[in-house]
Structures are given as structure tokens and as C-alpha cells.
Design brief:
The complex is a heterodimer of chains A (158) and B (514).
Chain A (H helix, E strand, L loop, with lengths): L4 E6 L4 E7 L5 H9 L5 E8 L2 E8 L5 H27 L1 H16 L2 H9 L35 H4 L1
Antiparallel strand pairs in A: 1-2, 2-4, 3-4
Helix pairs in contact in A: 1-2
Chain B lengths: L8 H4 L8 H4 L13 E6 L2 E6 L4 E4 L1 H8 L8 H8 L9 H11 L9 E5 L27 H12 L5 E7 L7 H18 L2 E8 L6 H9 L2 E6 L4 H7 L7 H18 L10 E3 L1 E2 L7 H10 L4 E2 L2 E2 L5 H4 L1 H4 L3 H20 L5 E2 H10 L20 E4 L4 E3 L2 H8 L6 E4 L4 H6 L1 H9 L6 H4 L11 H8 L10 H19 L2 H10 L9 E2 L2
The chains are: A alpha+beta (158), B alpha/beta (514).
Chain lengths: 158, 514
Amino acid sequence: MAQSKIETIDAKTSTLTLALDIDLYPRDVLYAAAYVFLDRAYVLLDRDGQRFIVHVRGKQPLEEETLRAFAGEFENELLAQALRQKVFAANQRIIENVANLAIFGAVGSEADEEGEAAAGDEGTDLSGLHGADDDGMDFLNDPLGIAKPWETGKKGDE
Amino acid sequence: MNNEVRSDTSTLLPRGRQVDFAQLSSPSQWKPDFAVPYNQRVIGKKILISNDFGDWLLLTHDEFRDFVEGRPLPGEPLYEKLKKANFVATDVDLWAQADRWRRKKRYLFFGPTLHAFVLTHRCNHGCQYCHSSIVGMERMDTDMSIEVARRGVDVAFSTTSPALTIEFQGGEPTANWEVLKFIVDYARQKNLDAKKVLSFALVTNLSLMDDEKLDFLLDRKVQICTSMDGPADLHNKIRIFRGGDSHELVLAWMKKINQRYAQMGLDVNQYRVEALPTITRPSLTRWRDIVDQFVDAGCRAIFLRKLDPFGFAAKSAKTLGYSMDEFLEFYAHAVDYIIELNRKGVQVMERHAAIMLNKILADEEPNYLDLRIPGGACIGQMGYAPDGSVYSSDEGRFVASMGDDMFRIGSVDDGYRTLMTNASTRALVMAGLNDGQPDCVSCVYKPWCGQQVEYNYKTQGSLHGHMRDSVWCRKHKSIFDYLMHKLEAADERDMEMFQLWTTNRTLDHFIVER
């Protein structure tokens, strides 16, 4: 069974190597945790059988104590990212609904679009904004109708 | 003068704690179907419960046990109390709650309301904590041009929000006076067609103010806000001004502007210059002096702002910084003192507390951008830099001033729709929801709290951060704890005072006629 642990630690070269059990952390979680360290360290990800290997080299000289703290921080970040991913998945529908509504509210309707163009928002290319196949804009689809205004009559209609 | 009184911080700033279910009731007795989803926290001798609608109750331990075990029966006082507060699953009027949600979340249906224009990076003060990338007064190349200002106003007016506030920031924004005047008049002209609820706010150190400028600002209904850190020795030590006595100058202009408001026939209880303090290490023992100074200057509200992690403030953290616990101790001392003054008839409140109480007691959503869900980044506010860059917020611009363009969502040339729909904006909105945050989803303060993605990023390296060791979370949870303990112990007179703090006062005078 693969073990998660500090493999090497060297204050002379400000480097640290962590080994992680791949069954414990999805790859996305590993990437997200590694990203948090980019401003402080150079991070190289590798794989060795059933283990992810994380090579960390400090951008500044680091003492062993700091390197050990890095390792602890990395492990905590992995846990935080893993848990957040689970919570996000559990609440994905509500999160997407609220985010859709917020973006829709900010963007406005086709009628507003015409109004904006008339008001002289020069240099804005509006073509394709509502095309679902353009530039990953398919989030503007609204199959659940959540972005439609709640007209007074809606309550009685449904 | 040192106001420090060593006190037992557990009394000064009581903390809530997790409910020990093992001591309370056996899981086999629980009836989860009885209640709507809720969270709980021990507050003093009571247990606070809240639901996502924003309802809350303080129950005794016995009442809470009965609630968890689904024992209350219709007609019994506890059942009726729970039913009235929408905790009984079978008795919730979903349509009424949907309408309520829509009322409180109305900001989701519109685009950004607050548009902060950084007119210049020039400033004549050298404040030790300043966020911005400040340059000397000779660096006019850092001024916003008329053309960028025009395009920025065009973008701002494209918002789908019926209300629009244009805020002038800097540097010292009055240093670029011609552009400020242009924006005010151009926006007023545009509003003849747009007919939005338009208002202006100027954040200024007042050092370049003169009668001509003041006449213009009053005539065009521009609200004036300034910075004041407390008594003269404290203020002048931090807000370094080589052109004179900054504190004396601020007080003199505040007095003059307040007099002009009175001469204009405005209600002097409402219309006053807003002043904001920034709390630094030397402030920590001076809570009484700071509050007294604000009261003496005629302020009715004090926003006790913690030093933030952006820009120069981060660089000066070693000399001016402090731990969150130190800030919270200061905060509790200051608000305790404000409450003491209220009991003596002095009308003054603390803004954090007022915003939170407005949500808790008045069931309102004041749309305070740092405490709402999703956070205010992009869809609540936008920041416009002198070079035409558009940022997710003022804080996003502060991060940029530290050399990181993470929160640049585009430029004034991109057009409003592109700014609102690009990948950065979508990511920031998603990250600003607390339904994806492990601690937030199980927090009793979830209905009233919020996220600031820029803060998470700067302090914890990712847009989401992790609330378990976030100072953002610690600050807000602690203040909520503090207020909930106050509410638990409040007598009728205290409740009247807190209700008064929650009263929304619309400053209609500052709305430009449509």
C-alpha cells in the first residue's frame, strides 16, 4: 500500500519531496493544492506507481523548519481542496443556478442589448454573445428557466 | 493616552462553540424530517439555530433537544415559535419564502451598482498603510484621461442595475479635478436618458479642497467621504502630510461641509461628512479616544476597519500590523464603549455591527459587498484604473498595484457585456458563493455572511481559500458571536438601540434627479 509522507527534505537546496497515495487524492485536487504554492516555490508533479510525487523547491532559501511547515501546509491544502470539491459537487446545482442568475442579471436581455448599442457602447462586439457554441458561452443556456423574471402571475400558473 | 484596561477576553469577546450532540441527545431519538435544514451554535446559555431563509432563534438546551427529537406538537408554545420562524418542515410557506429570497437577493437580478474610478495615483499624503500604488504629485502621467473617463462612464451606464454609484478614488482623486468634473457632468448628462438612480461619492483626504471645489461638489450632490484615524497624534503619525497638519485640516473641512449641509436645509442628523478610520497597531489601545474623536467631529457612524493585506499595507505590516485576536479585542472594547455612549443618549453606531444587525434583526440585505453571496466582485462593483483597465473591485485593483493582474477582467474598450460574461468574471462569481465552502455550509451565520475572493486569494493563495484558518472567517464569525451574545443578554432598552442601528436611512439628497 502506498504511503503519504515526506520523502526527502534538504535545507541546503531548499527542496522537499512529498509522496502521496493516489487513492486518497484526485488529480484535480493535487493540481489545485500545488497551485497555491506557485508564488513561493517551484513545484514539479510526478508519478511513481501508486504514488504522486511532489517536488518543491523554494524560490527563496528556506530552513528545514520552514520546509516542514510547507509540507504540512501542502497536506492541509490537499484536504481543504478535496473537501471543497465534495461540498461543491453536493451543492453544484444551487451554485450553478445562483451563478447563472447573477450573470444573467448583470448581462440583461436582448432588449437591453439593443439599448446598450443605441447608447453608443462603441467597440463592443455583441455578435455571438448568445450563441451557445461560441467561446464556451453555453452557460447562458437556461433549461430550468431560473433566470426568467418571477412575474406576479407565475405563482398562480405553476 | 492609553485606554487599555486588561480584561478577561472571554467576557469581553465571548465565543460561540459547537453543540455537543453526544451530551444532548441520542442519535436514535433524532427526527431530521421534522425540521428544515438548519445550523446551530452554542451562544452563552442558549443554542442559536438558523436556516437558509435567514430565520433564527435562541433556544434553551431543553428546547433544542425537543426540536432535534421532533417532539413539539402543534399548539404547543415551542412548536408555534418554531413554526413562526420557518423551522418546521411541513409548515413552511415555500412561495412566501421564495418571495422573501427574491427580495433579499434582488442584487442577483441586476449588474454592478458601484463603479469606482481611480482618477490618479498621485497623492500628497504618505499614509503608512496606503493600499494604492501611490506616486508623487508631479507624476501626472498616472492621471486618468478624459477619453478613458468617458469610456469608463459609458461602461458603467451599461449596467443593468437601476441604481448606479460612481465613486472617486485615488491616490487623491481631487488632484485630477478636471476629470472628476468631467465625469460628474458627463454622467449627469447621460442620466437624462438612462434615468438611473445615480449618485456620486468622493473619497478624499480633503487636503486639496477649496471653496470652489466644494461649491461644485455640493451643487452636483457629490457625497464626501474622508479618512480620519482618531485624535491628532494618532492620525498625523500614520497619515503623514508634509503640507501641514492633516488632522486639523480634515476636522476644519468636515465642520465647514457639515455647516453647508445645514445651510442647505438638510437634516443634520443624516447629512454629515462620512469619515473612516483605519485601525493600526498604535490604535489598538486607543478605542475610547478614537470613538470620542468621531463623536466630537459630529460622526454618527464609525466603521472600525481592520488593516487589510493589500498593497503598502502588507509591506508595513510589521510596524502597523497586529493579529486578528488583537483587532477583535480592540473591536469589542470600542463597541462596548459605543453601547455605553448610546445608553447615555449619544447617537453613534459601529457600521460592521449595524450591517450585521440589519440582516439579523431587520431581515434586510443591505447589499454590503463584502458580506453578501455571491460576493461583490464584478457583479456588485467594478474598479476602473487610470489606464482604462477594469478590475473586479477596488481590492482587485489593490492586488494589481502589487504586480498581480489576477483580477483584471478587461478594459473600458471591451464593452460591458464582454466584461460581465468573460471567463474571469464567471470564475469569480462561482468562487464567491459560500455553498461551495466546507465550513460555510455548516455555519450558523451562513445566511448573513459572505466571501471576498480577492481577500482569499491574497491571504491563502486561492480564490476559495479555506475558512478553517482564514482570518476573514475568524473576524466575521467572532463579530457575529459578539453580537449574538449581546442579543442574548439584551434588555428592552438595548434591543431598542440595536433596532435603531438597523434603520436604513436613505440619503435622497445625494440622488441625482432623473
